[in-house]
Design goal:
The complex is a heterodimer. Chain A is α+β, with helices and mostly antiparallel strands. Chain A has helices at residues 13-30, 148-160, 168-178, 187-201, 206-212, and strands spanning 42-58, 67-78, 90-95, 98-99, 101-102, 111-118, 135-141, 182-184. Chain A has a domain at 37-185. Helices cover 29% and strands 26% of the residues of chain A. In chain A, the strands form two sheets. A five-stranded mixed beta sheet of chain A has the order 5-6-2-1-8. Chain A has a three-stranded antiparallel beta sheet with strand order 4-3-7. The longest helix of chain A is centred in the first third of the chain and has 18 residues, at 13-30. Chain A starts with 12 loop residues before the first helix and ends in a 6-residue tail after the last helix. Classes of the chains: A alpha+beta, B alpha+beta.
C-alpha cells in the first residue's frame, strides 16, 4: 500500500492549487453536509465541481463513447448497498439521460465521486443545469452496454417512479462547495482532482485515490 | 546384454576398431568457430529417477522433485535381466547435454560420492534405491530447476563412457530438482508506481539487478471490479524475484469487460512504448516484448481473454506489440459476460484459477456469467486449470481492504491463497512463458503427492488440477465431441459398458440449481455457457457391484509406444446420493488390453489422490456440494507394461475403466472426458 505523500510532488501546479483549496473546503464542509434527504438511494448532492478540458476526453460508460470537454466532478451520497462492487452487473448511476462515471466505489461511506460529462457553453463552462438534472440508479447492467436511447428510457422510467432533481438550494450549496470552474488540460488532470476528492470523501477507497495520484511519467 | 558381456564386446570393439571409448557417432556443429565435439556413443538412455509408491506399480518414474523430497531411482531388472547379480556405481551429476558430457565426461557426484548398488532379480520393486533423502539443494539462482543426470557407471571408470546407462544427459536432464516455489526468488525487487495518464496507472516490479539479466519476460496483471492495481504485490514481488518484469495496471472494469480489455491492451502498449522514461529507463533493453503473459482477475480475467480475441479478430491493433507476442493468458475467477465468440482465448496457451468458496463469480447453476470454466473450455490450445476449495474471490489479491467474498466451509485465508498462488504460479509461468520444463509436472501431478514445501498444508487445502497438451501432444480415444452415440467413441472405436445411468451430452447443468435430480444428468456441470459452447462428456454411476466401460481402440491408436501417459479427466457428481454416501477421493482402475489377450491394470490412486469430492458448500439449491470439479489423471503407459511384462504396447486393443468394490470405490457417480494418450 502506498501513501499519498510520496506522490504529491508530481502534481501539476494548477492542479495543486485547485486540489489544495478543494480539499480544505471539502474538509471544512463535510460535516455540514449530513444527509437530510432520504428520497431514494441517491441521497444527496454533496459537492459539484464544474470543469472544462482543453483536450476532450472519452466517456467510456456508454456504448457510443462520446467525447466531452466539460462537465462536473460530483460527490454523491448514496445508499452503500447500491455501490457494493461485484463482478456481476451493478446498478447503473444516471444523471438525467447520461450515465455517470463512478471513479470510486464508496461502498462503506456511500460517498461516490463521479464524472458527469456535459456539453459546453461556448467559451464557458458546462451547459448542463444540475438543478434540472435527476440523479438516480437504474437497473443492474454494464454501463458500456447502455446506449443513449436506453439512458433516456431509464430517465423516463425514473421520473415516472417519482425521481426528481435535487432542490435548487442543495445544488447551489454543492456548487459552492465545489468552487469555481476548473480549466484543465486533459482528463489526466481531472483524475488528480478526483483522487484527492476520493481521499477526502471516501477514505475507504484510499487505494483508488492514491492510484489516481501516482506520479506522472513525463 | 549383460554388463559383463557388454564390457567384453566393447573390449573387442576397441581392439578391432581402435576407437576411443568416446566413439564418433556424430559431429555437432555449434557455430562457425566452435570446435567439433564428438558425442559419447554406446550409452543406454532410460528413465531411472522417480519415486516409490506404496502400491502397484510400486514406483513412478518422474522428472521433477522438490528440494526436500526423497529422490529415488529404480532399475527394472525384469526388462533388463542382464543386470541381475551385477553391482555398479550410481552417480547423481549436474546435468550436461550430449556435447557437455562429451567435452567433460568425468562423473562428479553432487552428493560427494557415488553409491554402489547390487542389482537383483524382482524388477523395479526389488531395485529401488534412495539417491538422496532430501539434502540436495534445488537452488539455481533465477529461474527454476536444477538439472541432474543419473548415471550407472557400468565399467566403473568414473567417466561417462561407452556402455554406461544414463537418465538425462541430452537436451533435458534426468530429473529436475526444484527450489521451493513457495519461497521468494534470489533477486531483490524494485517496485515503481507511476501513471501515464487516464487509466494508465501502473505498478511495476522488476529485479533490481535487471541491468545484468538480459531480456526478461513481461507479465501484465489486469485487476477485477472493485479491486485495485496495487493489490497484486504477491504476484509482482514473487515473479520479479525470479527474473520476470511484472506490471499491474489500472483497469477500467466498472463500465464493463470490453472496456477492461481495452485497458489491458492500452497499458501493455503504453509500457512497451515508453521504456525510455518508465522507471528511469531501467527496462530499456531488458524487456522481451515477444514473451508477454496476461493475467486478469474476475472482470479483468474475462477482459484478458477479450483482449486476445480483439487481437485475433483484428479489431484492435496495438502499435508496440502484436498477437504473437502474447504467449500466455491466465484468468483468475473470470466472468463470462460476452460469451463464446468474444470471451475467447482461441489457441493461445490458457490457464484458469477457480475458488470453490467464491461468492462473487460464484459458479452456481443460476448464474451463467459466474461460471469460470467457460473460457477454459473455449481455449483450443494447451491449457491448464487449478481449483482451490475454500478460496474466496477476494483471496486472489493481497489487499485486506477488499473483502474475501467467500462462502462455504473450511475457508482459506488470503495469506494461504496468496501463498498457494505463488507456489503454482512460478512453474506455470516457467513452462508457458519461458518454455522451462522443470516444473511442468506441477501442472498435472496430483497435488496431494507433489507440491512445494512451504505451501499451506491444512486439511482445508484441497486442490484439483486440469492440464491439456497441445494438439500434437494428444491422441484422443474419446472426447465425446463427436459420435453422440455412447456406443461409439469419438475416435471411432466401439464402447461397451455396464455402468448405471450412463449419459452423454453438453457439460452444462440444465437447471438453475445444484439440487440433484434424475432428470438432470449433467447436474453440477459448468463447462458450457451457451448454445455455441460445445464441451461434451459422459456421466454414469455404479453402486456396490463391479462395473466397467470398455473403449476399443481403432488400429491407428493401438501402438502406444510414442506416447507417455494415458490421460483422462473426471469429476464426482455433486450432491448425488452416490457421491455424498462417501465423501472423499474416488478411486477406480484403468486396464490396458493387447491383441494377444494380455492386460495390465493400475488404480488411479496409486499415484496419490483420486477424484476429489466436491467442495461441501451449500446454497444453490438443496444439499451440499458445489460445482463439479474436474481433474486430470495421468498414468504412465510404461507402468502398464511393467505391471504385466507380457503386455505388448505396440498392439493395445482396448482401454477399460473398471469401477466398484474390486477396483476402487464401492460406489460413485462420475463425469468423464478427454480419454487420450498424451506426450509430455
Amino acid at each position: 500500500m502506498k501513501t499519498l505523500s510520496s506522490f504529491s510532488f508530481a502534481l501539476g501546479a494548477t492542479a495543486l492549487v485547485a486540489i489544495g483549496s478543494l480539499a480544505l473546503r471539502a474538509a471544512e464542509e463535510r460535516a455540514a453536509t449530513s444527509v437530510e434527504r432520504q428520497v431514494g438511494p441517491v441521497r444527496a448532492l454533496v459537492l459539484a465541481q464544474p470543469f472544462v478540458l482543453e483536450r476532450p476526453a472519452v466517456h467510456t460508460w456508454r456504448t457510443e463513447q462520446p467525447t466531452f470537454d466539460a462537465g462536473y466532478l460530483v460527490v454523491l451520497e448514496v445508499d452503500p448497498a447500491y455501490v457494493q462492487p461485484r463482478q456481476t452487473e451493478e446498478p447503473v448511476l444516471y444523471a438525467g439521460a447520461e450515465t455517470l462515471e463512478r471513479v470510486n466505489h464508496g461502498a462503506t461511506s456511500g460517498r461516490v465521486v463521479c464524472v458527469l460529462p456535459s456539453a459546453r457553453v461556448s467559451g464557458g463552462g458546462p451547459a448542463l443545469d444540475l438543478s434540472q438534472t435527476t440523479f438516480f440508479f437504474g437497473p443492474e447492467a454494464l454501463p458500456e452496454r447502455i446506449r443513449a436511447t436506453d439512458a433516456q428510457h431509464e430517465l423516463e422510467r425514473a421520473v415516472r417512479s417519482g425521481a426528481r432533481p435535487f432542490p435548487r438550494d442543495e445544488v447551489a450549496a454543492a456548487l459552492a462547495r465545489g468552487g469555481p470552474l476548473l480549466r484543465l488540460g486533459s482528463r489526466d488532470d481531472l483524475d488528480e482532482i478526483a483522487g484527492v476528492m476520493i481521499l477526502d470523501q471516501a477514505p475507504e477507497d484510499q487505494d483508488v485515490g492514491t492510484g489516481l495520484l501516482a506520479p506522472r511519467v513525463r | 546384454m549383460h554388463p559383463a558381456l557388454l564390457r567384453a564386446a566393447l573390449a573387442v570393439a576397441l581392439l578391432v576398431q581402435v576407437l576411443p571409448a568416446q566413439s564418433i557417432v556424430s559431429t555437432q556443429p555449434a557455430g562457425p568457430n566452435a570446435p567439433s565435439v564428438r558425442r559419447i556413443a554406446g550409452l543406454t538412455r532410460l528413465d531411472l529417477a522417480g519415486r516409490s509408491l506404496a502400491v502397484s506399480p510400486q514406483f513412478e518414474f518422474v522428472q521433477s522433485f522438490f528440494e526436500g523430497d526423497e529422490l529415488a531411482a529404480a532399475l527394472d531388472t525384469n526388462a533388463h535381466p542382464e543386470w541381475v547379480g551385477v553391482s555398479a556405481n550410481v552417480y547423481v551429476c549436474e546435468h550436461k547435454d550430449e556435447i557437455g558430457w562429451a567435452m567433460s565426461p568425468a562423473l562428479v557426484d553432487v552428493r560427494g560420492s557415488f553409491q554402489t548398488v547390487a542389482f537383483v532379480a524382482g524388477g523395479v520393486p526389488s531395485n529401488r534405491i534412495t539417491l538422496d533423502s532430501g539434502f540436495l539443494s534445488g537452488f539455481v539462482g533465477g529461474g527454476l530447476g536444477r538439472g541432474l543426470d543419473v548415471v550407472i557407471d557400468t565399467d566403473g571408470d568414473g567417466n561417462l563412457s561407452f556402455g554406461d546407462w544414463i537418465d538425462g544427459g541430452a537436451a533435458e536432464p534426468g530429473l529436475w530438482l526444484l527450489y521451493p516455489t513457495a519461497l521468494q526468488g534470489p533477486y531483490l525487487v524494485t517496485e515503481v508506481l507511476y501513471s501515464g495518464g487516464n487509466f494508465l496507472g501502473q505498478d511495476l516490479y522488476y529485479p533490481s539487478n535487471i541491468a545484468s539479466l538480459g531480456e526478461l519476460p513481461l507479465v501484465v496483471v489486469s485487476h477485477g471490479n472493485g479491486h485495485n492495481y496495487q493489490w497484486y504485490d504477491h504476484i509482482g514481488f514473487h515473479l520479479a524475484s525470479y527474473g520476470y518484469v511484472v506490471m499491474s495496471h489500472q483497469n477500467n472494469t466498472v463500465p464493463g469487460v470490453v472496456q477492461a480489455s481495452t485497458t489491458t491492451l492500452t497499458n501493455t502498449n503504453y509500457l512497451l512504448g515508453n521504456l525510455t522514461t518508465i522507471a528511469g529507463g531501467a527496462l530499456l533493453g531488458h524487456l522481451d516484448r515477444h514473451r508477454i503473459a496476461w493475467i486478469g482477475h474476475s472482470r479483468g480475467g474475462e477482459g484478458v481473454a477479450i483482449a486476445y480475441d480483439r487481437l485475433f479478430d483484428g479489431t484492435y491493433t496495438p502499435t508496440n506489440f502484436s498477437i504473437s507476442d502474447i504467449v500466455f493468458v491466465s484468468s483468475i475467477a473470470p466472468t463470462d459476460f460476452q460469451g463464446t465468440n468474444v470471451a475467447n482465448p482461441h489457441g493461445v496457451p490458457y490457464h484458469l484459477w477457480t475458488g470453490g468458496a467464491d461468492s462473487d463469480v460464484n459458479g452456481c447453476a443460476d448464474c451463467n456469467l459466474c461460471q469460470t470454466f467457460h473460457l477454459h473450455e473455449r481455449a483450443t490450445g494447451p491449457r491448464s486449470s487449478i481449483s482451490l476449495h475454500g478460496a474466496g474471490h477476494g483471496a486472489f489479491h493481497n489487499s485486506n481492504s477488499g473483502g474475501l467474498f467467500a462462502a462455504g466451509p473450511c475457508q482459506l485465508t488470503r495469506g494461504d491463497v496468496n501463498l498457494l498462488m505463488k507456489t503454482y504460479l512460478l512453474p506455470l509461468m516457467e513452462w508457458y512463458v519461458k518454455g522451462n520444463p522443470a516444473g511442468r509436472e506441477c501442472l498435472w501431478r496430483q497435488w496431494e503427492s507433489f507440491h512445494s514445501p512451504g505451501a499451506p498444508s491444512s486439511p482445508c487445502v484441497v486442490i484439483d488440477l486440469m492440464h491439456r497438451e497441445p494438439a500434437a501432444g494428444r491422441l484422443v480415444i474419446d472426447d465425446f465431441e463427436t459420435n453422440a452415440d455412447l456406443a461409439l467413441s469419438s475416435s471411432g472405436g466401439s464402447v461397451t459398458y455396464d455402468v448405471d445411468n450412463a449419459a452423454a451430452g453438453l457439460l452444462d447443468d440444465a437447471t438453475t440449481s445444484f439440487t440433484t435430480s434424475a432428470a438432470d444428468p449433467m447436474n453440477g456441470m459448468t463447462f458450457s455457457g451457451s448454445a455455441s459452447d460445445t464441451t461434451r462428456g459422459m456421466v454414469f454411476d455404479w453402486n456396490g457391484v463391479d462395473r466397467q466401460i470398455a473403449f476399443a481402440l481403432v488400429p491407428g491408436l493401438s501402438n502406444t509406444t510414442a506416447w507417455d501417459h494415458l490421460s483422462l479427466r473426471a469429476c464426482q457428481a455433486t450432491r448425488h446420493p452416490l457421491t455424498t454416501a462417501v465423501l472423499g477421493d474416488l478411486d477406480f482402475t484403468v486396464r490396458l488390453r493387447d491383441a494377444q489377450g494380455a492386460s495390465a491394470s493400475i488404480r488411479i490412486s496409486a499415484y496419490g489422490g483420486g477424484i476429489e469430492e466436491p467442495y461441501q458448500r451449500t446454497d444453490c439449491g438443496t444439499g451440499a456440494g458445489w460445482a463439479n470439479e474436474w481433474e486430470t489423471v495421468r498414468i504412465p503407459l510404461a507402468d502398464f507394461a511393467r505391471v504385466a511384462g507380457s503386455l505388448d504396447r505396440t498392439q493395445i486393443v482396448g482401454v477399460d475403466l473398471l469401477f466398484g468394490p474390486s477396483h476402487g470405490s464401492a460406489q460413485g457417480r462420475l463425469g468423464l472426458d478427454d480419454l487420450e494418450f498424451v506426450r509430455d
